[in-house]
Amino acid sequence: MIGELGTTPRLVLDDGGRVTAESAVGDGGNIAINLNEYLLLRNGSLISATAGTAQAGGDGGNITITVPFIVAIPEENSDIAANAFEGTGGSVNITARGIFGIEFRDQPTPLSDITASSEFGLSGTVEIDALDTTAIENSLADLPELPLTTEALVAGSCIARSDESLGDFVVTGGDGLPQGPDDMPLSAYPTGTVRTVDNTTALQEPDGVYQLPNGRLVLSHICP
User: Is the pTM higher than 0.70?
Assistant: First the structure.
């Protein structure tokens, strides 16, 4: 018996979900799984081509899995198995970038296993072509059970502990913001220094624009 799961994005098995090609008596079947994203095994799920589930003869079947990632929880006892009872264990071939939470073991255990064992016969083969993710798994830290609250974050911040002003916003120069909502916009061009004149000075209107020796332009009149 051959069971093939064609190319799909992902496969999620949860709460005892199963993909099996088992046999009570006789050889186990073959399972081929090809996924584009990931295989997720949760809560006692199983992929099995085990033979002799009725404690009889038969060789374990073959399981071939091609997927970027396989993810399981070690303590949830989700397995990939091609075992046998009296016959020879089958074969498990896995090609993946990373495998997390499940690993090869010689015999089934209460943890999440990949096995091709036999109770009274010869063990089968398990070939895994994947990156070593042991360092990544061992570096993961447990998150706190109680999430942080905004009150705790504010209470422990520098803003709550200090009355000191940490910054200023200053409007300076031309082409800036007006001092108030009803004020006129500031000019984009500086006006220079405004000087006062006494009442005895006769004021004359400018009659043109003149260039000074330093290159500056002024609006003025010709002196008599």
Answer: no
What six digits make up the tokens of 155? 């209470």
Q: Which residue has the tokens 């502990």?
A: 161
For residue range 130-148, what is the model confidence (pLDDT) as tens digits? Answer: 887 766 666 667 777 776 6
Q: Where are the domains of the chain?
A: 2-138
CA distance 79 to 92: 12
Q: What residue type is 208 in one-letter code?
A: G
Find all residues with CB under 8 Å of 121, minimum gap 6, and list them: 59, 84, 85, 86, 87, 88, 89
Please tell me the distance from the alpha carbon of residue 193 to that of residue 170, in angstroms, as a whole number. 21
The tokens describing 6, both together, are 């064609």
Distance CA 107, CA 37 (A): 29
- Where does the chain have alpha helices with state H? 134-138, 150-155, 158-161
Averaged pLDDT for residues 17-32:
94
Tokens 């190319």 identify what position? 7
At 151, give phi and psi (nearest 5°). -65, -40
Contact present, 191 and 177 (Cβ < 8 Å) = no
Residue among 104, 59, 102 nearest 83 (CA): 59
Q: At residue 207, what are phi and psi to the nearest 5 degrees?
A: -120, 5
Which residues have CB under 8 Å from 115's CB, separation 6+?
Answer: 79, 80, 81, 82, 83, 89, 92, 104, 105, 106, 107, 108, 126
